[in-house]
Amino acid sequence: MPAAQSPAQDSIHLADADDWDQHWEAFAEAAARNPAQAYRRRLAAKLLEAVGPPIRLVDLGSGQGDFLGMAARRWPDAELLGVEPSRLGIAQSREKAPTARLELIDLLADTEIPDDLRGWATHALCSEVLEHVDDPCSLLASSRALLAPGCRLVVTVPGGPMSAFDRHIGHRRHFTPTALGRILEQAGYQVELALSCPGRRLRASGRALTRTSRCSPECSGSRARMSAGSSWRSSGCRPRPERSTTRSCA
Length: 250
Description:
Layout: H1 20-33, H2 35-48, E1 56-60, H3 66-74, E2 79-84, H4 87-96, E3 101-104, E4 121-127, H5 136-143, E5 147-158, H6 164-168, H7 177-186, E6 189-197, E7 201-208, E8 232-238
Parallel strand pairs: 1-2, 1-4, 2-3, 4-5, 7-8
Antiparallel strand pairs: 5-7, 5-8, 6-7, 6-8
């Protein structure tokens, strides 16, 4: 019989549907000034460029554009794309990252992805997004349409117990390293690396696969392993070619 899951970490917590325009109107300034956000952006950037500087970078759930703005300064030759379901987030991003292409796309809806963006990205980021959705596996699986074969994806999510403030800003769940690895594999990614970082968040990165399994509610069957320790984690993922084996994360 499976071990009981921690309700604070592995169970899905119900929350009202996010109004992302309202979210960014209320929290954009606080998020931009938060030193933890700047720390996460620096760590994500180092993981992204570990396989070479980005050529075409997509920010999946680009919010108010803080990462895109940093990316434009850090990698001035890279093409940048922000995918975001909020019109207000898109407008704020235009001010911070005027050279980036911005697309109003909901990856959990039937939004059409432009043909010229299919298989486009060599590098991708999904930061502090999965905790806000009821079906993170489907969001990650839908995102693969934007990624080129071998694209490096970096994911950051919260770990540890949820606070009242977390629920207030729309968190459905927090993650354990094992749960995050399972979700990534079920969505079609090969987890390559797991890192512990100080704080209350998890990180993951890897490669997208050419073919994905059906996303189950538990995202079971993953062979990925991530290290135990503090609640900030990072892992590396890329699209996995057919018949390839998954490298464990130690």
